[in-house]
């Protein structure tokens, strides 16, 4: 026994007894964050009352859509736990997702990503969330081996080898499920084979708890893809025409990866995001897990569907950069460029879309640099 998980159900015998029905109803009524917070606070109360104070000895679930209230629920005096984030709506509010994760890690919490494999976004965002614990979707240990299972297994194995994250298998009810879980790299498991959900025992047995959270080096506030990349790699200089072709190549790599890719790009100002670029990103929005475009003067466009559109403040150094970051389970690349023209000439004067514009740029396939740059853009969404 290493930890417990706090589970919630609705009133017994009611239509909302099933947690999926309960949370779906709360989402429909616009009260998901309120329910999520209430469940979390009740989990804290029950754990404290039972004397459960083992560091990271309790998994507490949270919906990504409801993380805005997390900071108010979790205080410095709250014992360190494991924040378990569900796979639903992971890309809905990327900035809030990252801020919440960073907040609890500062307090000694670890992060678990739930139902990995159930949704492509959970695989696509592994490198950006960097969970200490990966919880496999229960269907992965119950399905017959197929290409989907193999694809998920490869992505999870690669991430675990790189980061040291722990793999947990859910829904283990038989010895066969246990064998499948072990084959997929799981070292911990939960399910009815080990015990059914129940109240905390009294007295509590001694449990091990989970390891400390990953030590992350936060980028300075206002960091940009170019400043992040240029600290680690030598920048080169060339005109706009080469950068256009590199950008299109990276975008095509994301399209080839499909639903497990994340793409974040900056276009300096809205007038640069037009014509063919709009059509390329419309296609990306229909194909990849998450795509975002940032530019000064850019506003949301319903016609672009799932593409996150974000303006850039004139005081933001990002205004002078052109970047494309692509992250997939087995590919990472970053083009980060900064225009060499005087700052005011590029933005307050007439459009300068010709190929003679000069940039200093870094092109790298280093995953750590690419992920850091991608996070710097996600935090602006």
UniProtKB/TrEMBL annotation:
Pfam families: DICT, EAL. Residues 1-211 form the EAL domain. GO terms for molecular function: cyclic-guanylate-specific phosphodiesterase activity. SUPFAM superfamilies: EAL domain-like. InterPro entries: Cyclic-di-GMP_PDE-like, DICT_dom, EAL_dom, EAL_sf. This is EAL domain-containing protein. It comes from Subtercola lobariae.
């Amino acid at each position: 026994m290493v930890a417990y998980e706090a589970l919630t159900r609705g009133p017994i015998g009611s239509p909302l007894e099933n947690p999926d029905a309960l949370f779906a109803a709360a989402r429909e009524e616009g009260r998901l964050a309120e329910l999520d917070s209430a469940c979390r606070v009740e989990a804290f109360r029950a754990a404290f009352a039972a004397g459960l104070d083992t560091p990271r000895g309790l998994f507490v679930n949270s919906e990504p859509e409801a993380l805005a209230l997390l900071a108010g629920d979790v205080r410095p005096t709250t014992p360190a736990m494991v924040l378990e984030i569900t796979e639903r709506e992971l890309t809905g509010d990327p900035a809030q997702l990252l801020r919440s994760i960073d907040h609890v890690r500062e307090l000694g919490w670890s992060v678990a990503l739930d139902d990995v494999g159930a949704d492509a976004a959970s695989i696509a965002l592994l490198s950006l969330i960097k969970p200490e614990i990966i919880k496999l979707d229960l269907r992965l240990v119950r399905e017959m081996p197929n290409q989907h299972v193999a694809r998920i297994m490869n992505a999870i194995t690669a991430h675990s080898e790189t980061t040291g994250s722990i793999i947990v298998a859910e829904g283990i009810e038989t010895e066969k499920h246990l064998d499948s879980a072990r084959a997929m790299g799981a070292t911990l498991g939960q399910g009815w084979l080990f015990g059914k959900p129940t109240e905390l025992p009294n007295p509590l047995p001694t449990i091990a708890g989970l390891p400390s959270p990953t030590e992350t080096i936060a980028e300075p506030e206002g960091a940009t893809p170019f400043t992040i990349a240029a600290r680690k790699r030598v920048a080169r200089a060339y005109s706009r025409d080469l950068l256009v072709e590199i950008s299109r190549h990276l975008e095509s790599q994301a399209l080839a990866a499909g639903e497990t890719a994340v793409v974040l790009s900056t276009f300096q100002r809205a007038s640069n995001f037009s014509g063919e670029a709009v059509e390329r990103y419309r296609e990306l929005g229909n194909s990849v897990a998450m795509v975002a475009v940032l530019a000064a003067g850019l506003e949301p466009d319903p016609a672009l569907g799932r593409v996150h559109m974000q303006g850039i403040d004139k005081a933001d150094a990002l205004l002078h950069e052109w970047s494309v970051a692509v992250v997939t389970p087995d590919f990472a690349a970053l083009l980060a460029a900064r225009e060499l023209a005087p700052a005011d000439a590029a933005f307050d004067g007439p459009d300068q879309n010709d190929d003679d514009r000069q940039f200093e740029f870094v092109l790298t396939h280093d995953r750590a640099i690419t992920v850091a740059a991608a996070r710097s853009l996600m935090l602006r969404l």
